[in-house]
């Protein structure tokens, strides 16, 4: 048989419709790849032989957070069962096995697969820890050549890490293809692992959990106390230790730990993986975590409907109310935004929280340094696995560097425990840290050669930080910068807190369009921050309203409106590079660009109503146009009359609807159908720049020009009365508050065109004037000011 040197994935079969299998099928559907989702036929007489796969798909559709970008994608998943439908495997390019973690069951299934397998088909296992060489025992040469482990993390859609583990016979071309496919098509951060038990993330992560758990039992820490100590202040997500265990499932945790204990007999910390009896007892009682609604935490509802989360008392296995956790070190650490500074503050402290932080940090760092060369090809693989697999702010060796640069803290953390041999090497043969250089010249200590090598990045990846380090900044005013991306494309980068819109950002937008077009043929708007923009600077809005600075506020709102119009009618193409949240004014900026390249996990919405306001940067106007309120569409009678766009826009804005993905943003019309989606955040600027160049080249050949000014045909006072009646109905049924109703009436007036005639078109500027008038009027109300103040203080909307 000739060697297979080229691979493609057009159709997939997922075997096993449990939480992971169904979620993998859902994510394949998210990126447009059809799949079969097969599971066993349940024992006994059943009319629905596909019931297990059907149930798995239904759970994926109901999952929170959502497994699908849009539920419409579920049509790409075809359910079936392994007994009746096994022959479909002959027609797919990739078979993913996601059945229970038992070697005998997997081996039996592989035997069935081989009976129908088309030679050259990719086969992978989603095992969380069984070594690849054990999985392929007894299999044919072709099976082994095209087999590897693809270990997804839960929840599949959101967790970036994908560990790939080849066996000794895997085709190197297949490994290379899967790396590229997973990065570019599935949007994953790929880490290649050596064929050792539990690979990288679970090997280090489960060791960290088990060593922490033993210290918690010995030293008497409470569950919620541990999560407060080892959460965000130590560079970890809010789920920290025990909540993370609940999310992944205690049964999974025990399986992984048992697997390590049994299959890594040479591990010097093997006894740490021995599961404590208290966890075994929790399993016996069905306390599995989120999947059984009780684990280390349990949510209960009181008779009045209020939810309370109880924590487990590890000494009695009874649920008790959580106690407030207050330590000076935690309070001090929360004063810093930088995760490294927060961590150092915790580790330097002298209280009980700092003690646990130091002990668990030492355990985890020593284990990672002592085992890195056994389980990974580089320290970068270890750090990527920990950041992508557990949402840590810093990887293991990044934390080592933090401590190596702060020797007093390092000494306090290690407490006379010897430095690992790898750390000693980086001090004697390296430059004293595992990473060197800044943005653009970032290198890592390669333990195979004891030299420094460039940190690998995805092909074509554009780093704004690296460009700034290379002096590619054309202009910077403190709130925003104009950066040269090369090839005649500039980038407007926001860098205020949460990229909130202020005078400096608006000024930069004016400069980039008016002056930047002399240097650039196209512009991209975006940043490497977590969010595109959280909207207007609410503190300035509140201060202006309370001080009666109405001229200042009107000037600021008009400034954003005119800047957005400038983007819309710019003579050179404007491409928004959208990632994270684009809320309020941020959403409006995106909607005024000529094209958007959106990261799949983008969340867009006009949320001003929650603040007691309405969109006033052109958001009402643009959503009306996208729903078909423009004169041309209305004259062609394509929308069912002028009230239809108004009603749709009202429903979207009044309820502060936020998309849960870029696909849903298209369904809500925040994005156009012609806007493009990138699945991997690292490649967003590469793709946005390519889109900008394409538009610029089209402009050069006369095939692109900015849009012409539009007119809107809005239904006027009669339609406003209909919307106001809806508002009154919501008020009477208690669905909204009195102030919500006031906001709704203002919104209804704007969307229906104020006092316009239903047969007289309005200009965009006339609608903008209505937006601005309503916004200022609402700013003057006490309850809107209360909402803004409450949100600034608590980050939670106030319903008053």
UniProtKB/TrEMBL annotation:
Residues of the 3-hydroxyacyl-CoA dehydrogenase NAD binding domain: 11-196
SUPFAM superfamilies to which the protein is assigned, alphabetical: 6-phosphogluconate dehydrogenase C-terminal domain-like, ClpP/crotonase, NAD(P)-binding Rossmann-fold domains
All copies of domain 3-hydroxyacyl-CoA dehydrogenase C-terminal, residue ranges: 199-298
Domain of life: Bacteria
Xref: InterPro entries: 3-OHacyl-CoA_DH_NAD-bd, 3HC_DH_C, 6-PGluconate_DH-like_C_sf, ClpP/crotonase-like_dom_sf, Enoyl-CoA_hydra/iso, NAD(P)-bd_dom_sf
Residue ranges crossing the lipid bilayer per the database entry: 12-33
Pfam families named in the record: 3HCDH, 3HCDH_N, ECH_1
Pathway: Lipid metabolism; fatty acid beta-oxidation
Tagged with keyword Oxidoreductase: yes
Keywords, sorted A to Z: Fatty acid metabolism, Lipid degradation, Lipid metabolism, Membrane, NAD, Oxidoreductase, Transmembrane, Transmembrane helix
GO terms under biological process: fatty acid beta-oxidation
GO terms for MF: (3S)-3-hydroxyacyl-CoA dehydrogenase (NAD+) activity; NAD+ binding
Catalytically driven reaction(s): a (3S)-3-hydroxyacyl-CoA + NAD(+) = a 3-oxoacyl-CoA + NADH + H(+)
PANTHER family: 3-HYDROXYACYL-COA DEHYDROGENASE FAMILY PROTEIN, 3-HYDROXYACYL-COA DEHYDROGENASE-RELATED
Family: Belongs to the 3-hydroxyacyl-CoA dehydrogenase family.
Protein name (record): Enoyl-CoA hydratase
């Amino acid at each position: 048989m000739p060697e297979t040197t080229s691979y493609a994935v057009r159709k997939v079969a997922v075997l096993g419709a449990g939480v992971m299998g169904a979620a993998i099928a859902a994510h394949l559907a998210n990126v447009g790849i059809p799949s079969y989702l097969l599971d066993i036929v349940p024992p006994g007489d059943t009319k629905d032989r596909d019931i297990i796969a059907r149930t798995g798909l239904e759970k994926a559709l109901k999952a929170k957070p959502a497994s699908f970008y849009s539920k419409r994608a579920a049509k790409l998943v075809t359910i079936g069962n392994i007994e009746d439908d096994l022959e479909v495997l002959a027609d797919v390019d990739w078979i993913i096995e996601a059945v229970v973690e038992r070697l005998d069951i997997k081996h039996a299934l592989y035997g069935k697969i081989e009976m129908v397998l088309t030679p050259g088909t990719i086969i992978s296992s989603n095992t969380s820890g069984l070594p690849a060489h054990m999985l392929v025992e007894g299999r044919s040469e072709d099976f082994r050549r095209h087999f590897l482990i693809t270990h997804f993390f839960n929840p599949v859609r959101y967790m970036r890490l994908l560990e790939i583990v080849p066996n000794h016979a895997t085709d190197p071309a297949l490994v290379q293809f899967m790396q590229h496919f997973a990065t570019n098509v599935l949007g994953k951060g790929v880490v290649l692992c050596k064929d050792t038990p539990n690979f990288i993330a679970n090997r280090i992560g489960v060791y960290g959990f088990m060593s922490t758990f033993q210290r918690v039992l010995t030293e008497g820490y409470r569950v919620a106390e541990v999560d407060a100590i080892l959460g965000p202040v130590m560079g970890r997500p809010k789920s920290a230790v025990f909540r993370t265990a609940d999310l992944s499932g205690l049964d999974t945790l025990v399986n992984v730990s048992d697997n390590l204990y049994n299959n890594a007999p040479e591990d010097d910390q093997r006894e740490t993986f021995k599961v404590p009896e208290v966890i075994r007892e929790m399993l016996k009682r069905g306390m599995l975590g989120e999947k059984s609604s009780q684990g280390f935490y349990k949510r209960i509802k009181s008779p009045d409907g209020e939810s309370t989360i109880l924590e487990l008392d590890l000494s009695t296995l009874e649920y008790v109310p959580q106690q407030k956790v207050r330590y000076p070190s935690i309070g001090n650490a929360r004063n810093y935004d930088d995760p490294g500074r927060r961590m150092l503050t915790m580790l330097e402290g002298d209280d009980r929280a700092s003690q646990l932080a130091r002990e668990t940090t030492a355990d985890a760092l020593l284990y990672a340094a002592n085992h890195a060369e056994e389980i990974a090809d580089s320290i970068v693989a270890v750090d990527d696995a920990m950041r992508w697999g557990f949402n840590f702010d810093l990887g293991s060796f990044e934390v080592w560097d933090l401590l190596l640069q702060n020797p007093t803290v390092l000494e306090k953390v290690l407490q006379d425990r010897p430095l690992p041999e790898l750390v000693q090497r980086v001090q004697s043969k390296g430059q004293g840290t595992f990473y060197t250089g800044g943005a653009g010249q970032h290198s890592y200590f390669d333990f195979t050669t004891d030299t420094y090598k460039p940190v690998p990045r995805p092909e074509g990846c554009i780093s704004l930080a690296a460009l700034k380090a290379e002096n590619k900044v054309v202009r910077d005013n403190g709130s925003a910068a104009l950066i040269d991306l090369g090839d005649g494309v500039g980038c407007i980068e926001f860098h205020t807190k949460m990229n909130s819109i202020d005078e400096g950002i608006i000024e930069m937008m004016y400069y980039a369009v008016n002056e930047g077009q002399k240097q650039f043929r196209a512009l991209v708007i975006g940043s490497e921050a977590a969010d595109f923009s959280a909207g207007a600077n609410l503190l300035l809005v509140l201060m202006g309203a309370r001080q009666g600075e109405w001229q200042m506020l009107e000037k600021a709102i008009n400034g954003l409106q005119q800047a957005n119009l400038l983007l819309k009618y710019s003579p050179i193409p404007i491409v928004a590079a959208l990632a994270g949240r684009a809320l309020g004014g941020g959403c409006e900026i995106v909607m005024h660009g000529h094209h958007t390249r959106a990261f799949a996990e983008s969340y867009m919405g006009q949320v001003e109503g929650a603040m007691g306001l309405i969109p006033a940067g052109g958001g009402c106007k643009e959503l009306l146009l996208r729903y078909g309120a423009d004169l041309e569409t209305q004259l062609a009678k394509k929308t069912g009359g002028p009230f239809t766009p108004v009603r749709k826009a009202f429903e979207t804005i009044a309820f502060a609807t936020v998309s849960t993905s870029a696909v849903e943003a298209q369904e809500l019309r925040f994005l156009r159908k012609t806007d493009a989606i990138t699945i991997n955040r690292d490649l967003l600027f590469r793709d946005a720049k390519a889109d900008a160049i394409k538009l610029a080249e089209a402009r050069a050949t006369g095939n692109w020009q900015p849009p012409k000014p539009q007119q809107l045909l809005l239904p006027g006072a009669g339609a406003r009365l209909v919307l106001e009646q809806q508002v009154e109905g919501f008020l009477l049924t208690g669905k909204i508050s009195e102030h919500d109703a006031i906001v709704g009436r203002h919104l209804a007036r704007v969307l229906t065109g104020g006092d316009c005639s239903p047969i007289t078109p309005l200009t965009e500027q006339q609608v903008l004037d209505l937006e601005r008038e309503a916004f200022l009027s609402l700013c003057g109300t006490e309850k809107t000011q209360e909402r803004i103040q409450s949100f600034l203080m608590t980050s939670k909307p106030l319903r008053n």
